[in-house]
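Hi D.,

Good news: the full-assembly prediction came through. Inputs first.
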Amino acid sequence: MTIAAQIKDIAFKALKNLFPEADMQASMITVNQTKPEFTGDYTVVLFPFVKLLRQKPDELGKQLGDYLVANHGDLFTSYAIVSGFLNLTVQDSYWASFLTKEYNNTAFGEKPKNGKKVMVEYSSPNTNKPLHFGHLRNIFLGYAMADVLKANGYDVIKANLINDRGIHICKSMIAWMRYANGATPQSTGIKGDHLVGDYYVKFNDIYKAEIKQLVEGGMAEATAEKEAPIMKEAQDMLRKWEAGDKEVYSLWETMNGWVYEGFNESYKRLGVDFDKMYYESNTYLLGKSLVEEGLSKGVLFKKEDGSVWIDLTADGLDQKLLLRSDGTSVYMTQDLGTAQLKYNDHNGLHQSIYVIADEQNYHMQVLKLILQKLGEPCADGIYHLSYGMVELPSGRMKSREGTVVDADDMMDEMISMSRQQTEEAGKTEGFTQEELDRLYYTIGMGALKFYLLRVDPKKKMIFDPKESIDLHGFTATFIQYAHARICSILRKEGLSLLPDSNTFASFTLTQGITTAEKKLAVSLEQYPAILENAATEYNPSLLCNYCFALAQQFNSFYDEHSISKAENEEKKQLRLMLIVMTAQTMRHAMKLLGIALPEKM
RNA sequence: GGUCCGGUAGCUCAGUUGGAUAGAGCAUCAGCCUUCUAAGCUGAGGGUCAUUGGUUCGAAUCCAAUCCGGAUCACCA
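Then the structure:
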């Protein structure tokens, strides 16, 4: 239990003892960290009890403060009351024993296995174009969320649902057949996903030109959009694909294969992976049996033309189509089936998390609601981890129009920028070329991931490609640098990083600890609570904020105190424990975000 | 039009189970490297927390209304 929670507990019991007849609840107690301008470490807010206990705040504070110091002298040294706030000063020995106990605990903050299975579906790309910057936000979020949940005791399955069929895939295929002259990734040296994406863009160029021509010939635009020859070809191809046409199917397999090779390369570079792949070509017919079931249960209804619907107007939503009048399914139908499939594949899931952009909020809300109405056991576990789109200053990225920031290009750029800045700072000495390449990768990718993870997922973000991502301030680089500094100190002291770090002899505190020392200890003590919050709020950005603040505190501490030349042995050991644990905690948190911290930079 | 999300410093963002004088980073300005890594540290300036009203001892945080921006409401996926 964190110190803040302990204080809340203790203060509640104290008030119960002092005022046995009053009707109080634990939720009335607020415990905050004391503001730096006042003396004290933690603050109990007294106002909520003033009316109930008919006491003036300051008198109440005095009684409570006296009681706490008298009965919990092991925890508190003293208290001060400032206009309704009871500021408690925690014994230095508390921090010392916390450190002694936890500094070499490599699992600090983690929770024991809880036996609950959670699926995190993320990435889920279309196979007609390469990954772009917006996908990166999805990928980093999903990967981080999975690891955060693991650290909180869940059994996590990382899933990727690949959208490998449909009209958009046929568009690339048609354009390739028409214009590629048999070009392959091998013959052109172009990465497979990019090659296919180029023909997707090509399709749209031709399509637009054909529409224009038809409109000039006197056709209405809406009609032209349907009648354009290349579009009809694509639709024809989709029908052939669904009918299992050998030639079409074989081209489809070939081109998807190119894309997968490209994606795998990108995933590897991004440092992410999946435990389970789903393909829409296998799942797109699912869900029909659920519809049948829903009809027989009377949850769904059939219109005169044969189409099947659900009426959600009572829930403040609309009517939603689930089967077309020709009996074919729609997107929602297959999603219903896939939700059920995921659940059954894993013998039940405690939770199924979908990392999907916020433009699908409505869709996901409807999906969950329909499954609930159908009484499906998978329904309640569905959680939509919704995130805001990444936009350019000019608006949304549109791959159809080629106005996207490509993910592979972005990685290249970040790595080359970190190379450039490292060289400019003259920090390349003492590294082999191989070590330098790894360092540039670590810094570049770290900066990229942190940039996309540091913002609250639900907020949309604007990225200006003209402005490069910074390596100063609120960045991964800042945290990596603090870590490298710690490693440097440890190297000089002949100590190595955890888990190999030497254990110290027993430690007894005989001197006071300084403000900078205490601040670090206080922050470290909060890590388990932060890690838990990141999971319950589905928000990895909390870890970014935490790590940055921790690194800031370390940097101030480092500036103020010498570790190797500490005033005496006791101070030296205390500070070594502090920095070992700081490095360990930063590594732990950043690892969950998929960000590595170099030992030298 | 209905529903949902957002609006905090010049810019990018923290802060919302209601707590003290609203915080960081970037940018600007001024300091700090013969001493453990200056990718750092210290300090300064910069705010009508979109607006108005309400609830309360206390509101960026809760409620209501309004304004602005975005998403969504397809026999598309």
